[in-house]
């Protein structure tokens, strides 16, 4: 199988780990020889409940017995989606009450940027240097990491960059800004936490100029699905309503919010 792995499957680094995984249990992975490995990677932070969590497996099994995929997102009433959206609304500030479920964090970034441009009629996005928001062209355009972006230029225009935790740079946010997008904790840059009061000052500046603030938990929020592919972006019901018309189906996903 190792030969087939290198022959037929695209790799993402010059020297893949090429560890043949047979199964996972709790905090351990096991290869095809039965050797155990303490899994510090944890699915790149997605497996916060460990491998094979019983409640997750049971929920998957129960849903498989009902249906898997039925329609693009937001058209049919599906209880797994409705229940999750209500759960998230209960945990968030009152005005963050409407959720759009996606397949990944990158897709959530793309949706949030589209929403900001649609609501403000502006095209400029302000982001932080050394940020990580995903790997599609749109998401990479707001990642201020030249070593990652260089090979894929030109990216989507209209991005400006500030230094994370630098209050002097907030003057970059102006009346041309559709949104400011920041990680709540900068993951790829070295797990940098915002200084006390910094995000509040960013929020205040956005309100002054009529820009939206996108707080991205693309890494810290990975445990949302217990190891299953899922993402979400959340705003008010009023804001999200712009996706329903002019054009109809203004933002769609085939598998986002998959009931399984």
Short description:
Pfam families: Aminotran_3 (PF00202). By secondary structure, this protein is α/β, with parallel strands linked by helices. The chain has helices spanning 2-8, 54-64, 79-91, 105-120, 137-140, 146-149, 198-209, 237-240; strands spanning 21-25, 28-31, 36-38, 98-102, 124-128, 159-162, 177-183, 212-216, 231-235.
Structure description:
The protein is α/β, with parallel strands linked by helices and 260 residues long. The protein folds into 2 domains: 2-60, Aspartate Aminotransferase, domain 1; 78-244, Aspartate Aminotransferase, domain 2. Helix content is 27%, strand content 17%. It has 8 helices and 9 strands. The protein has a 4-stranded parallel β-sheet with strand order 6-5-7-8. The protein has a 3-stranded antiparallel β-sheet with strand order 1-2-3, with no helix packed on it. Helix 7 (198-209) links the parallel strand 7 (177-183) and strand 8. The longest helix is centred in the middle third of the chain and has 16 residues, at 105-120. The chain starts with a helix and ends in a 20-residue tail after the last helix. InterPro entries: Aminotrans_3, Class-III_PLP-dep_AT, PyrdxlP-dep_Trfase, PyrdxlP-dep_Trfase_major, PyrdxlP-dep_Trfase_small. Keywords: Aminotransferase, Pyridoxal phosphate, Transferase.
């Amino acid at each position: 199988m190792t030969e087939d792995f290198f022959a037929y499957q695209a790799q993402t680094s010059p020297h893949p780990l090429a560890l043949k995984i047979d199964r996972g249990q709790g905090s351990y992975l096991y290869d095809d020889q039965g050797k155990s490995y303490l899994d510090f990677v944890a699915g790149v932070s997605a497996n916060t409940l460990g491998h094979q969590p019983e409640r997750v497996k049971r929920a998957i099994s129960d849903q498989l017995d009902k249906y898997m995929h039925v329609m693009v997102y937001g058209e049919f009433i599906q209880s797994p989606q409705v229940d999750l959206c209500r759960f998230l609304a209960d945990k968030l500030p009152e005005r963050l009450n409407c959720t759009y479920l996606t397949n990944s964090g990158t897709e959530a970034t793309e949706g949030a940027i589209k929403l900001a441009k649609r609501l403000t009629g502006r095209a400029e996005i302000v982001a932080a240097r050394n940020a990580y928001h995903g790997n599609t062209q749109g998401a990479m355009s707001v990642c201020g990491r030249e070593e990652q972006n260089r090979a894929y230029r030109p990216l989507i225009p209209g991005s400006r960059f500030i230094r994370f935790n630098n209050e002097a740079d907030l003057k970059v946010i102006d009346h041309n800004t559709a949104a400011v997008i920041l990680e709540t904790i900068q993951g790829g840059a070295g797990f940098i936490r915002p200084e006390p009061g910094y995000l509040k000052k960013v929020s205040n500046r956005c309100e002054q100029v009529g820009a939206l603030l996108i707080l991205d938990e693309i890494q810290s929020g990975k445990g949302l699905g217990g190891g299953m592919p899922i993402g979400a972006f959340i705003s008010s019901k009023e804001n999200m309503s712009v996706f329903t018309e002019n054009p109809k189906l203004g933002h769609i996903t085939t598998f986002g919010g998959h009931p399984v």
